[in-house]
Fold each of these.
Amino acid sequence: MSSVLVVLEQQGGKWHRMSWEALAAGAELAGKLGLSVDAAVVGKGVGTLAGEAAQKSIGKVYAVDHDLLASYTADGYTAALEQLIQQTKPAFVLFPHTYQVRDFAPKLATRFDRVLVSDVISIEAAGSGVTFVRQLFQGKLNANFAASTGAFASIQAGAFRAESLAAGTAEVVNFAPSVDASVIRIQAEAPFRESSRAVDLTAAEIIVSVGRGIKEQDNIPVVEELAAALGAELAASRPICDAGWLPMERQVGSSGQTVSPKVYIAVGISGAIQHLVGMKGSKAIVAINKDENAPIFEVADYGIVGDLFEVVPALVAEVKKAKA
Amino acid sequence: MKIIVAIKQVPTRDSQLNVADGGKWIEEDDLTFEINEPDAYALEEALQLKERDGEGEVIALCLGPSRATQTIREALAKGADRAIHIEEEQLEGLDTLGIAKLLAAAVKAENPDLILTGLQSDDFGYGQTGVVMAELLGIPHATIIMQVEKQGNAIKVKRELEDGWFQNMTIPLPALLTIQSGINKLRYATLMGIKKAKTKEIKTVTASDLGVPQGASATLDKVYMPQRTKQAVIFQGGDDPAKAAAQLVEKLKFEVRVI
Ligand SMILES: Cc1cc2nc3c(=O)[nH]c(=O)nc-3n(C[C@H](O)[C@H](O)[C@H](O)COP(=O)(O)OP(=O)(O)OC[C@H]3O[C@@H](n4cnc5c(N)ncnc54)[C@H](O)[C@@H]3O)c2cc1C
Ligand SMILES: Nc1ncnc2c1ncn2[C@@H]1O[C@H](COP(=O)(O)O)[C@@H](O)[C@H]1O
């Protein structure tokens, strides 16, 4: 009988934490369909990792092993997983929605003339029909996608709880794909980081973070004043750093820093998932936004709906009053 | 180099969205539209690559309804040499594979050296149309690209990884890249450019011209406003910002204890 296959992610022998959230999603889907859930880990010498994954209450763990899979390439991973899927014929294939998965999973799905239902936040199953729920318009809208057996889906960060996976002993199955060096067309160099960060936002107790609601660079002092009044560090969403209004090292999110201050004050930030993953862990979150439906309010503890150009100066005055 | 840039027209960012009757899509009548943000960066990168080379051609490719002509004209005004418009009124009825098959069919006829797409559309947000196109065309790809440099018959790119990491890679041409916002500085169209755009070619084709059979393997059943689960304490700052500010400061002082 076929099962739900979850492709876990590792790099240099280290797990990507979202792997376990995807596995939890797979276990939930398998439970609803009365199927078992299997996992796959891809790389070179992944036996130890497969052994670790086998300590969960799942069916099998495939150790997809090949010298040419030592470092990630879309071509290599696609070739290897195509063979695994052809052989094991899973009912559904799930991935964590990481940057790496974005790079190869759509290619893999295309090999099977299927789409990848990407960035899924929940899964409903009725009979044999499965509905994947994903967001549209950067979280402003939800959509249900109906998919039949054989579908591929990737799971959004934080949507499923890794802790929901029970411990167990799964069977490790070695899978040796045939991968020819000629299929790998890209020459990848070792990952690197840009010059060290001068600003360490992770140590800040209070962060005032500014988004595109600020409209133009000349308005940045509006939030700088709030940060000064609170004794806070200034941070920003990506578009602000892209535009060069604040330095890159102040960017919070999936491609910037991950912070968890006592309070994170998001000013004119909509709350796209790539921003949320960098600040969701804050002890308290305050959102100031003129749009009451902005997704940021979903993670906020406190909020002011209003025009930041009126609200922030008023806030500065009140903070100063409270501190006096 | 002959470069094709896939540009999509999407509702402007601050649009107030309302679900249309039937719950299958949003009401579009009152919306305004613009180029998908990363696609604007992809177009700019193509123009800069051509300028650095001193020769070549930049072709804008757009699948969308007739209103998308506006966005195509803007791309031409910024410097694209010509455009291909695959006219299709309702994209939400297609899945990514359907969309990519149409785009790939139009690309194939042109035989470009390089294809650029945005990394993600602001409306659907599938984040994969480019990757699927590359697979359909049988060419290599790289995603989330922050730098592009031509080196003979190959390109060297800087790819963004998570948490502030990057990776350089070299890819033989022809290839497809998905471009990340912020890779370059966007230009504005000049008056001269706008004037010239009027004389540039926009080739309009349909799905049946391209001979691509349509069918979706994941179908969009329903769109709806998300159910908000977390109850934030919200103060209304519309009429009396000072009062809302005072209420928030009280929370910051006595509950969050940061003041
Ligand atoms: C692979 C990838 C990686 C990414 N990495 C990151 C990342 O690390 N960090 C990151 O932040 N983003 C990242 N992004 C981008 C992310 O998807 C969003 O596009 C971005 O976070 C949006 O920034 P924003 O909220 O400032 O702008 P917008 O989404 O444009 O939101 C602006 C907000 O301001 C509000 N507003 C406007 N005017 C006012 C006013 N006068 N008063 C009050 N409110 C107002 C609006 O209602 C809106 O909610 C990434 C995207 C991708 C695809
Ligand atoms: N209808 C379209 N017309 C032209 N390009 C598109 C279209 N849909 C998607 N693309 C391209 O594919 C990229 C990724 O889109 P998506 O996969 O929907 O997130 C976009 O940034 C565009 O460059």
Amino acid sequence: MKILVGIKHVPDTEARIKVASDGLRVDETGIKWIVSPFDEYALEEALRIREARGGEVVVVAAGRPEAQASLRQGLAMGADRAVLVEEEAYDRADGLARARALAAVAKAESPELILLGKYGVGADEGQTGPMLGELLDLPHAAAVTSLALGEGTFKARREIEGATEVLEGSLPAVVTCEKGLNEPRYASLKGIMAAKKKPLDVRKPEDLGLDPKDLREGSRVVWEALESPPPRGAGKVLKGEAADAARDLARLLREEAKVI
Amino acid sequence: MRNVLVFGERRDGDLKKPSLEAVSVGRRLADAGGGTLSVLVVGPGAAEAAAALGAHGADRVVACEAEHLALYAPEAYAAQIAEAARAEGAGIVLVAGTQMGRDVAPRAAARLGAGCLSDLVEIETAGDGTVRGRRPVYSGKAYARVASRGPVAVAILRPNVFPATVARPGAGADAVAVPPALAPERIRVRTTAVERGGEQEIDVAEASIIVSGGRGLKGPESFSLVRDLARALGGAVGASRAAVDAGWIPHSHQVGQTGKVVSPNLYVACGISGAIQHLAGMSSSKVIVAVNKDPEAPIFKAADYGVVGDLFEVLPRLTEEVRRLKSS
Ligand SMILES: Cc1cc2nc3c(=O)[nH]c(=O)nc-3n(C[C@H](O)[C@H](O)[C@H](O)COP(=O)(O)OP(=O)(O)OC[C@H]3O[C@@H](n4cnc5c(N)ncnc54)[C@H](O)[C@@H]3O)c2cc1C
Ligand SMILES: Nc1ncnc2c1ncn2[C@@H]1O[C@H](COP(=O)(O)O)[C@@H](O)[C@H]1O
């Protein structure tokens, strides 16, 4: 079975986020870039399916040339080959533009399953999967914590408020992956060495029939400003005997904060 | 003029609170743009559930009673939203950011060729029809001001941020019955079961008060201290990833970047250090309390009220004080 896995190249979740002087972007000085954590669940799941059934795992990214590093990481974990749709503008484009890029790759590759992360950390949106499903006219299941494949079918579970939803559908499909689905493997030294020789195909949006002008100017959603979070006033700290602190706190929550 | 459509999500027949919050926002935006407010409700009993929506400010209620839409089906629900947006001439589609909302809204947006604004904590419309909003990004380490261009915008609203109000007590709404946008045979994925856990606990994603425990609890037994306080406050039990990874409590309770993102009125963090990935899930809570024995713990930087002390001593006493205050 051929599986396509979307890998988003994002700032490390530990990174200190500072707004750049243009008031719009993140100051990238000193930021380490990683594979978005949820995409590791997607790739791990793809590798397990390949191990069980055979087939091929193709990792795909749309973005700046540096995203190659994240694709190599995916290859080191065990993916067979990689495709980069190279265009800086994807880093600022909206979900629909990103989904169009992945859709173009999917049309060229015709995978039976497309696995993505629940969301890409940073923009924290989670739009690409459901949008990709619509663009490709495929069913989708989002934020799944378990996935079982049958012959041309799938069964997934996802957590909703206070319950678990069981979804059943047909393949091909788009599925986005949530923590709990599996424990992603680490890339072995051997894997890292092997990754250097695996094919990484760099494509321009034009090669895939995408209009770069549409991409640069056509994003429906634009970021107009990036701001630091509103400062929280210095909190009150209660020290001393537990009994006194507990009593003071309860009183403050009722009389000052008015939350109980 | 910009008409507004709200997707009204139901559970056990009733409209969910985050959807009522979206209806209140919808009323405000419809008034600002001189348009009407329609609310789409799907599944058997939709019309009945929608009866009370007039009081919340809806002008029109669009009900699709189809039996095959009783449970969530991503393609069908997205198609229904897109169809209703077209039929109602909506320039703005509002969806509450529940698990279902975050799943269905982007698909509906793609179907409409519309921009999708995620996780908004503020929303306004400009005279030219642009929808503008503000949202936390980079796990709450920054806020983005975002705007959507084009004739239609889909906006996902963070639950528990916008108040749900009864705008027009006693008012009714025009009811419109609509057929399903997708016939049953065209639906390729559907919910076949909804499994509820044994105990009917409040889910952190929906709670207005959350008491969370972390590694400082030392073991699964001491979650009872957290649970007791949560019960006294009428809130839900949350947890850090360290507590979840240790197997002390299921992942459904985890708050943070790889858990749930919550904005309750009160968040009490007990024995949680305040790692950035935990803060990502709760820093937009209205009031934050931290109980930690380490005065240098980063959680105190986020807290409105901090108790430096041993949680094993503080929590039982706090629970007692809360019970006393509540019964007085
Ligand atoms: C990609 C990624 C995603 C992550 N996602 C999440 C997430 O979603 N949610 C999350 O929570 N974490 C997440 N983490 C993990 C996060 O970095 C921290 O490791 C985790 O939050 C720590 O949990 P903790 O605060 O319970 O434990 P610790 O950091 O070990 O803190 C325990 C605290 O308890 C205090 N304590 C100990 N004993 C007592 C006592 N008797 N009384 C009072 N206080 C006491 C200590 O002073 C300490 O501050 C993620 C990490 C990564 C890399
Ligand atoms: N630029 C991209 N390149 C490759 N995959 C992406 C890209 N953007 C999003 N994805 C995939 O879609 C998922 C959801 O991303 P998002 O909608 O950006 O939150 C990610 O976890 C990736 O699997």
